[in-house]
Amino acid sequence: LVGKFAPFRSTIFAEMTALAHRTGAINLGQGFPDSDGPPELLSAAAEAVLSGHNQYPPLPGVPALRTAIAEQRAADYGTPYDPDTEILVTAGATEAIAAAVAALVPAGDEVLVFEPYYDSYGAAIALAGAVRRTVRLHPVGDRFTFDPGELAAAVTPRTRAFLVNTPHNPTGTVLSAAELAVIAEICERHDLIAITDEVYEHLVFDGVRHIPLASLPGMASRTLTISSAGKTFNATGWKVGWVCGPAPMVAAVRTVKQYLTFAGGTPFQHAVAAVLPDRHRWLDGLRTRLTAARDTLRDALTSTGWRCFACQGTYFLQVDARSVGYGDGTALCHDLATRAGVVAIPSGAFYADPASGRELVRFAFCKSPAVIATAAGRLAGFAAGAHREGAA
Ligand code: PMP
Ligand code: GLN
């Protein structure tokens, strides 16, 4: 590999999906659903293509979609946004994150992130010439959270922004009102911009509520909130995301975005606009199915000796590789693919130094009941074999 980004290599998701193809294993690695979103979404997209919505959309996004987003955020969270100046549609959340960091963090200044963090954050910060500062999430009981003292100690005079992800990939933590209040206080005290990645905002379980940081007192004026229709409507390949925030911050992101992709996905934007107002029935069903999948997988794992961490949201379940006799999650993932027929993600990929998360492995459970049941059976059998070998 050549070039400045050679150290980033290929993403762990591409690598593990290729491993699944090579081995024929069930792919619980890269997080994408194995079924489509609501039929109305698909027919709206087909209709948009056939009725001539195939040229560039306006730079900020199709007006009907921005209006639907404004209505959704006001209804769900009580946060008002002007569709004309405070909402920008992007090529997925990924572009929104990269453009936001590039637009708002001067080269050499620091971005705080909780670690583990989604892999594109490190690359987005590097692209901007900014500096990553990490604050570790630790398991307290079986749930990952941060230590407020460690967070306070991580801020320096060069810290400009806090990139926060809730519901959190890969830990499955949904930040509570109290945790968000600590984050808000830090942002206000040090005059930080908050960039919140809320792509799993609707995928929360067991009555846990997702709270946008922007909805906390005083935070709307300093927070950019990022969403993804890919996660909300099982359409990860469409790459329709958006940013909501104060007009000057959104204008800054728009300026960068116009030179990354300008704009795209016109028919998909129309389709998302058509279904966003009727999201509740789809999302209720999706949460019910994901809860069942999580429970099937978790029950099979815990009953055979795997240690699972709490999963309050997202579609990821993390486990401790040591519970099945492995000190190294990468070695476990290799053996799972070849011996159990299941691909997972070694969570070390979500750490600046992979050694820091080497004992963790992540399973994606956004799959059909039959696929989850088969994978759960294989993983239970693998654990039984691992324990037998350990005992021998
Ligand atoms: N943020 C997180 C936490 C994610 O897990 C993902 C994965 N899709 C993204 C952002 C990227 O979203 P999109 O596909 O809309 O670019
Ligand atoms: N967000 C997805 C995950 O965490 C992966 C997206 C990608 O392949 N880059 O699994």
Automatic annotation (TrEMBL):
It holds the Pfam family Aminotran_1_2. Residues 25-378 form the Aminotransferase class I/classII large domain. CDD domains: AAT_like. Its EC number is 2.6.1.-. The keyword Transferase applies. InterPro entries: Aminotransferase_I/II_large, Kynurenine-oxoglutarate_AT, PyrdxlP-dep_Trfase, PyrdxlP-dep_Trfase_major, PyrdxlP-dep_Trfase_small. It is an enzyme of class 2 (transferase). Transmembrane segments: none annotated. Keywords: Aminotransferase, Antibiotic biosynthesis, Pyridoxal phosphate, Transferase. GO terms for molecular function: transaminase activity. It comes from the Bacteria. Its cofactor is pyridoxal 5'-phosphate. This is Pyridoxal phosphate-dependent aminotransferase. It comes from Amycolatopsis heterodermiae.
